[in-house]
Amino acid sequence: MPAVTANTLTLPRLPELPQAETAWRGVKRVVQAQRFIEGEGFAVRRPFPGVDLSLADPFLLLDHLGAVEYAPGEAKGAPWHPHRGFETVTYMIDGAMEHTDSIGGGGVIKDGGTQWMTAGSGILHNELPPQELVVKGGLFHGVQLWVNLPRSMKMTAPRYQDIGGGDVTLLSSVDGGALVRVIAGSLDGHDGPGVTWTPITYLHATVSAGAQLDLPWPRDFNAMVYVLSGRGTIGREGRPLEEGQLGVFSAGDALTMRAQSAWDVLVLGGRPINEPVARYGPFVMNTRAEIIQAMEDYQAGRLGTIPAERLAHRGPTDEEVST
What we know:
The chain has a single domain (10-270), classed as Jelly Rolls (Sandwich), CATH 2.60.120.10. The protein is globular. A hairpin with a 4-residue loop joins strand 20 (231-234) and strand 21 (239-242). It has helices at 131-136, 288-299, 318-321, and strands at 27-32, 34-38, 42-48, 59-70, 78-83, 86-94, 96-101, 106-110, 114-118, 123-128, 138-148, 159-163, 169-172, 178-184, 186-187, 190-191, 200-207, 212-216, 224-229, 231-234, 239-242, 245-249, 254-259, 263-270, 278-280, 283-285. It is mainly beta.
């Protein structure tokens, strides 16, 4: 994986946590990601939303894109579409994705870079593979995370953050066997570059076979681990977790996990919002009435305008928005 790498021996170390005195989190549930087709026809693996969305609060959706080796002409994207009421976070590990939105944000996301888009009161955007990837094909691997906004922030002004791979905060496990990339939030006082409205922590860890990764974790945050590749175990009970599976932790002050093979995982958690969630396609609000208002605002053009030079990629029809 070409996501940011480093010599762990040169990085700040996470603390050694006392095994007996630490309130280690147990494993509440393991979820197998389901497969879906999105956008123009690209496959995703989605561990949530699922049976119990409250376990993931404040997160709404996690889509694992790839890893896939596209042949020439196969790469797909998501043409212009609206959002309101939450944030989309796209993290690219292999390959690249181009983003354009109606507030002037945009660029190419690649090499461990992240696009953090706050839809807030409303935005239009598209996500498309670069022309070179479409023509030549190549490896594509990324993740999209949806982060909810509390009622008080649903209608905040849209915002775009371009976080380059070189901007992430890099840390090492105690023994140097794991590289941790802090994309957003804070880990043991080390802050990531992503600026969030909702308090969360979002990490990508690469753990060498046989190595253990212990992480201090805020007690008021939930905690989840999703496996991008490889296999390992989580919790002191050693619950197996492999590619395409999500582990949900119970309460406590710290997480522990151990790699059985070379293991890449996302570790994420946040302070639950604990508010009603009303979802309809690309809109996430608190009530059905607010969803209807979002649809009306989109149809009336109040969620933004596609830049003239980008009109070649049309927005979705009303029927497509409702799916």
